[in-house]
Design brief:
The complex is a heterodimer of chains A (224) and B (272). Chain A is an alpha/beta fold. Chain A folds into two domains: 1-73 and 162-177 and 194-224, Rossmann fold (3-Layer(aba) Sandwich), CATH 3.40.50.300; 85-159, no CATH class. Chain A has seven helices and ten strands. Chain A has helices spanning 45-52, 75-82, 100-104, 106-111, 115-128, 144-156, 174-189, and strands spanning 3-14, 19-30, 34-38, 60-65, 68-69, 85-88, 162-166, 194-198, 211-216, 219-223. Chain A has a six-stranded mixed beta sheet, with helices on both faces. A four-stranded antiparallel beta sheet of chain A has the order 2-1-4-5, with helices on one face. In chain A, helix 5 crosses helix 6 and helix 6 (144-156) runs parallel beside helix 7. Chain B has two domains: 2-25 and 157-265, no CATH class; 43-130, 2-Layer Sandwich (Alpha-Beta Plaits), CATH 3.30.70. Chain B has nine helices and four strands, in the order H-E-H-E-H-H-E-H-E-H-H-H-H. Chain B has helices spanning 2-41, 54-60, 72-79, 85-94, 109-121, 132-184, 189-222, 229-233, 242-265, and strands at residues 44-48, 64-69, 97-103, 125-129. Chain B has a four-stranded antiparallel beta sheet, sandwiched between helices. In chain B, helix 1 (2-41) packs antiparallel against helix 6. The longest helix of chain B has 53 residues, at 132-184. The radius of gyration of chain B is 30 Å and the shape is elongated. Classes of the chains: A alpha/beta (224), B alpha+beta (272).
């Protein structure tokens, strides 16, 4: 299987390189794998995830995502890469003045799909995340769990090859968290997407095989 | 209600800028026309020993435009009533040549003094009369109107630009999250700014159309009954159709600059 993410002695830093968060990280994530990244607060989990979608550029070393060398990626190529990713945030990052359906098809709007295709896909995904009949509502009219399901639906709308989730259940109760984990398992198992999830805690019941990386003291290592 | 308020917060300063610019263009044309009338009305009287051609005058000073010879016979006939024809001819022969000289633009007293100096330097010229006092009063009034207009329009445009900048700050807050989310999901800057551009463009169209409406009304409604001779005779000074393009052009430029600046300021943070 081909590698979706490859790092080689990668160092990530803030404050113009002054404050190093991750040092000399070397690992590979293959196509179709489900990966959990855990670690204490402030260890650099979210920073690592941000580097995968180019919001943070490595200070040193190599990072290749979807075949693109992220240290030298052009703006145009980065934009193109991002249209093939599904990104899920802890705070959902939905556009509150847009309807649920429009939020879900935002990646399709960005990719220039026509309105008919957007509507068809919105209806399919609303059903998939069990939000039928709520497409015309606005995000703030939904519960936290429902908003995160909209976030997951948005991430799945363009059938991404890589899904990146930053604490997707961090703000949710147990029931809503289980719904989100089911959707993520399904994305990996049924759709064949690679899924990388940053979380404080791995769910106790998880039905598919996964890999587990821990970040500690700036280093990253895999738990076998 | 909130949406109308937000639109008005951009439309009103834009309207003030466009009204200021159109006022500047209108008053510019009116004062230029007034200056043209002053120029036409102003003449220098030149007395020469021998006849001179207009070209000879223009060689002396390039500001000289038209030169007309004053008919001496009618003057002599008035003062030589009852005299014999021979005496009249004698007077005519002994009189010098009189010319009224018009200038090609409206000049200050100092500049007219320079022309006078150039003319008197010519050995053929006996005398030059420039009527400085009345001219100076007109010229000063003309310059005062222009300066007052510059200051008024400048202040209005400056204040309005300040308000536009304030509105841009509000836009940044309102649209930051949406634009950042769209950027993370791979949207181009054109797509990210699309919503903002549509809002700003609508506001710009409303502001430009309102300005055009105001000045069209003033030209066809108010000016005709204003009893201001210059305006009644030259209504086209008040609003010209080319102004439509200027106003739309400026409104569009302000919108483009505003949207691009907001869009640039809402860039995501990328650390190295």
């Amino acid at each position: 299987m081909s590698n979706v993410i490859t790092t080689n002695r990668m160092t990530l830093a803030y404050d113009k390189g002054e404050k190093e968060i991750i040092r000399n990280a070397t690992f590979r994530i293959k196509k179709g794998e489900f990966v959990f990244i855990t670690g204490p607060s402030g260890s650099g989990k979210s920073t690592l995830l941000k580097s995968f979608y180019g919001q943070i550029i490595p200070k040193q070393g190599d990072l290749v995502v979807g075949g693109l060398e992220m240290t030298h990626v052009s703006k145009k190529n980065l934009q193109k890469l991002r249209t093939h990713l599904g990104i899920i945030f802890q705070d959902y990052k939905l556009i509150n003045e847009w309807t649920v359906a429009k939020n879900i098809v935002l990646p399709l709007i960005i990719a220039g799909y026509n309105v008919d295709m957007q509507q068809t896909q919105a209806q399919r995904l609303l059903k998939h995340v069990k939000l039928e009949g709520k497409g015309d509502m606005y995000p703030l009219q939904l519960s936290g769990g429902e908003q995160q399901r909209v976030g997951v639906a948005r991430a799945l709308s363009k059938t991404p090859f890589l899904i990146l989730a930053d604490e997707p259940t961090g703000n949710l109760d147990e029931y809503s968290s289980n719904v989100i984990w089911d959707l993520m398992e399904n994305a990996c198992d049924q759709l064949g997407a690679t899924v990388v999830v940053v979380t404080h805690r791995i769910p106790t019941i998880f039905n598919i095989p996964y890999r587990h990386f821990i970040i500690e003291n700036g280093g990253i290592h895999e738990v076998h | 209600m909130k949406s109308i308020k937000h639109h008005l917060m951009f439309i009103l300063p834009l309207l003030a800028i466009l009204l200021g610019i159109e006022s500047f263009m209108v008053f510019g044309r009116v004062t230029a026309s007034y200056g043209e009338n002053l120029k036409k009305a102003y003449t220098i009287l030149v007395v020469t020993r021998r006849p001179m051609t207009p070209e000879a005058f223009r060689k002396i000073d390039t500001n000289i435009d038209r030169v007309e010879s004053v008919e001496k016979r009618s003057i002599v006939e008035q003062i030589a009533q009852g005299m014999s024809n021979a005496s009249t001819q004698e007077i005519l022969k002994s009189l010098p040549q009189f010319y009224t000289v018009r200038l090609n633009r409206y000049l200050s007293n100092a500049q007219i003094d320079v022309i006078k100096k150039h003319l008197t330097r010519d050995p053929n010229v006996r005398r030059v009369e420039t009527f400085g006092q009345a001219h100076n009063a007109n010229y000063n009034l003309y310059m005062l109107i222009r300066a007052a207009l510059w200051m008024f329009v400048g202040f209005m445009v400056f204040t309005s630009l300040f308000l536009v900048v304030k509105q841009m700050e509000i836009w940044q807050l309102e649209h930051r999250e949406r634009m950042q989310v769209m950027e993370i999901l791979g949207a181009s800057s054109v797509l990210r700014s699309g919503v903002l551009f549509r809002i700003a463009l609508t506001d710009a169209l409303i502001a430009a159309l309102t300005t055009i409406g105001v000045f069209v009304f003033l030209r066809y409604g108010w000016v005709a009954g204003s009893e201001i001779d210059l305006l009644v005779r030259k209504q086209e000074l008040f609003f010209q159709y080319k102004d439509v393009f200027v106003l739309f052009g400026i409104a569009l430029l302000i919108v483009l600059i505003s949207v691009v600046l907001v869009s640039r300021n809402v860039k995501e943070v990328r650390d190295v």
